[in-house]
Amino acid sequence: MPATEAEYHPRHHVPARQPTAIMPRAQGERPQRLVKRYRTEIAASTSSMFSTVVAFPLDSVKTRMQTYRYDGFLDCVRHTYRTEKLRGFFRGVLAPMASITLVRTMSFSIYQRAKYSYSGWIKNALGFDVLQHVNEKGTYPNLYSIACFGAAGATAGSCITVLACPFELTKLSAQVSVLLSDQQKLKEANCRATNGHQVAASYQNKGTFKTMRNIIRHRGALGLYTGFNLHLLRDTLGTAIYFMVYESGKQLGTTFGGDHPTTNKLSVVISGGLCGIVSWAMIYPIDSAKSIYQRNSLLYSKGQQVEPPPKIEFFKRHMYRGLGVSMGRSCAVNAIFFSVFEFMKKHVSSLDDNSGIV
Fold first, then answer.
1. What one-character-per-residue DSSP string does 264-331 give?
2. 44-349 CATH, one of 2.40.50.90, 1.50.10.10, 1.50.40.10, 1.10.150.20
3. Is residue 335 within 8 Å of residue 269, measured between CB atoms?
4. Segment 287-332, tens digit of pLDDT
5. Cβ pair 223, 166 in contact under 8 A
């Protein structure tokens, strides 16, 4: 009789030991499968937190340059350090730490599902398998792949705006709160509210949730969604461009460089940096209009009419203040983000389902 059968034979007093031998493995397999199933979300959240903290000072300088006049990048950095010290560059970092991590995780999750859905639709309707084409060696981006990634990106961008808008307004408030209460800077905003200075001063030195409560107190609950239309337009277009450039760039990098680990890593870094640069260059006037309008709203109380949002003017110099900073920040953030993201995904995917509890 085989040994495996003998262990279950009634004459042997070992049946009670069998559950203890099996159960730990059965329990260990489930967390492994869950981790692998949600590897996109795990990788996105981990890499988001890391990249956000690293590049936040540049984001803060970008917002200040968009909403107020400075004599260039170094002037803004000197003024911020002189008036607020090092803390000024990280003012409001907790809001994006929470929001960007949550938003980006949801964005990648929605994008991933939308990409497979649209790819399936294209395959059924037009007979072309986008994902198979992209994963084949030596292929190039085409109209189908670019359209699929762009549509999936636009879907993700439009969905996350509802969640992102309040947090981004809170972040902006924290970044410019000191400037808002400055009388000279107040004049630059052309504020016509009689109590604009007092309202602006109330936003200083507040945490994320206190700032949210303050916005609700002055502007009502819907005040958290000030500039929502501009935010929706920016995120829908920006995220579509973002994923089109990243996916296409990664495909081109693999095709030109060959399927080699070093080449693949380099293509991820380059594509990540490039998608941030291109997307910001394309949508920056929309973001500037949004930032200016949101800044102006922080100077008014409930019932007071906020100045209408500025016109979105492409190729007008004043709409591109801080673009260089933003592109540099975005290049660094996304190069770091996608490097960590792809590493985490591969690491999680390589886990052994039978290796025990994670």
1. HHHHHHHHHHHHHHHHHHHHHHHHHHHHHHHHHHTT--TTSPPPPPPP--TT-GGGGTTHHHHHHHHH
2. 1.50.40.10
3. yes
4. 999 998 988 888 877 777 777 888 999 999 889 988 988 898 889 8
5. no
Distance CA(314)–CA(309), nearest Å, equals: 15
Both structure tokens of 37? 């199933």
**Single pTM value for the model:** 0.76
Residue type for position 25: R
**Could you tell me which residues come within 8 angstroms of residue 236 by beta carbon, excluding any fewer than 6 positions away?**
154, 157, 158, 161
Question: Residue 9, SS3?
Answer: coil
- pLDDT tens, 145-200? 999 999 999 999 999 999 889 988 888 887 777 676 665 555 555 555 555 556 76
Domain positions in the chain:
44-349
- The answer to whether 102 and 208 have CB atoms below 8 angstroms apart is no
